[in-house]
Model the fold of this input.
Amino acid sequence: MRPERKAKPLAACNVCHALTNEHELLNQRCTAIVNNRRCYGIFKSALSYLWDACEGCEATGMIGSQVCTECKGFGWKMYG
Ligand SMILES: [Zn+2]
Ligand SMILES: [Zn+2]
Done:
């Protein structure tokens, strides 16, 4: 059985492009740590970005039984 394609992530950081599906994080400060500092970006709604389906996993987030490392299991990558 082939896994189903995932829905696009809920939101993405406008600075480091970290992805999240947590509603509480929408329009909140990014939780990613970059160079030992908390990222200063904001999680913006994914609707404000363009998306590409991950080529490694074809938007399923999985390669076989492994989480896709290219998209960290989200199945999508920000365009560009
Ligand atoms: Zn960030
Ligand atoms: Zn992938």
About this structure: The first strand starts at residue 11 and ends at 13. The pocket of zinc ion (ligand 2) is lined by residues 54, 56-57, 61, 68, 70-71, 75 (CB under 6 Å). Strands lie at 11-13, 19-20, 33-34, 37-38, 43-45, 51-53, 62-63, 66-67, 76-78.
